[in-house]
C-alpha cells in the first residue's frame, strides 16, 4: 500500500466554512472554468444550495488547520436516470498543491461510507467530458461512465 505522505484529517463541514470553501473551489477549478462557477457570489450561492441539500454529506480535508479540499454529497438525491434515490456527489475539489496525495480518494471513501450508513446502494455523479483528470480518478475508484447530457458524463458506482 502506498504510504500517505500528508497527514490530513477528514472532518464534517460547517456552514461557517463557506467562505473558505469558496476560495478552495475557485483555486481548484482554475483551468476548468467551462465546468464551474467563476464569480464568488455564484460560488457562495452554490455552496449554500449544497448545505441545504444535505448538510450531513459535506466533508472537508484539513491540513495544519487549513481546508485543502472538500466533498459535497447528497443522500437525498432522486436520480431520474436510476429511477430511485442515490447518493450523489455534487462537488469534489482538492487544492492543486495538495493533489495526488490521496486527499480526493479519502474524501470519496468518506462519502461512500456515509451513503452506506444511509442505506443507499448506488453513488452517482456528473463530470465534464474533457475533465480527464477527474474522469480517470473516478474510474480508478470504481465508477463507470453510463450516459451523458450535453457535455456532462454520468458516472455510477454500485455500493
Ligand atoms: C479530481 C481531484 C479531486 C482528485 O484529487 P486528488 O487529491 O489529486 O486525488 P488522489 O490523490 O486521491 O488520487 C489521484 C489519483 O487519481 C488517479 N488519477 C488522477 N489523474 C489521473 C490521470 N490523469 N490518469 C490516470 N489516473 C489518474 C491516479 O490514480 C491518482 O493517483 P496517483 O496520484 O497516485 O497517481 C482533483 O484533481 C481536483 O480537485 N480536480 C479539480 C476539480 C474537479 O475536477 N473535481 C471533480 C468534479 S466532478
UniProtKB/TrEMBL annotation:
Keywords for this protein: Acyltransferase, Transferase
UniProt keyword Plastid present: no
N-acetyltransferase domain span: 8-159
GO molecular function ontology, one term from the record: acyltransferase activity, transferring groups other than amino-acyl groups
InterPro entries for this protein: Acyl_CoA_acyltransferase, GNAT_dom, MshD_Acetyltransferase
Organism: Hydrogenobacter thermophilus (strain DSM 6534 / IAM 12695 / TK-6)
Gene3D superfamilies listed in its UniProt record: 3.40.630.30
Descriptive protein name: Putative N-acetyltransferase
PROSITE patterns from the UniProt entry: GNAT (PS51186)
Pfam (any one): Acetyltransf_1
Amino acid at each position: 500500500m502506498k504510504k500517505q505522505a500528508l497527514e490530513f484529517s477528514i472532518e464534517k463541514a460547517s456552514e461557517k466554512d463557506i467562505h473558505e470553501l469558496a476560495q478552495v473551489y475557485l483555486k481548484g477549478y482554475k483551468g476548468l472554468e467551462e465546468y464551474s462557477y467563476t464569480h464568488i457570489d455564484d460560488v457562495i450561492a452554490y455552496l449554500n444550495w449544497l448545505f441545504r441539500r444535505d448538510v450531513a454529506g459535506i466533508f472537508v480535508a484539513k491540513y495544519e488547520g487549513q481546508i485543502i479540499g472538500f466533498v459535497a454529497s447528497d443522500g437525498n438525491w432522486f436520480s431520474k436516470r436510476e429511477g430511485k434515490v442515490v447518493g450523489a456527489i455534487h462537488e469534489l475539489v482538492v487544492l492543486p498543491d495538495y493533489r495526488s496525495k490521496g486527499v480526493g480518494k479519502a474524501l470519496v471513501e468518506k462519502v461512500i461510507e456515509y451513503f452506506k450508513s444511509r442505506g443507499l446502494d448506488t453513488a452517482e455523479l456528473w463530470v465534464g467530458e474533457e475533465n480527464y483528470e477527474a474522469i480517470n480518478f473516478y474510474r480508478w475508484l470504481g465508477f463507470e461512465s453510463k450516459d451523458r447530457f450535453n457535455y456532462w458524463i454520468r458516472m455510477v458506482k454500485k455500493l
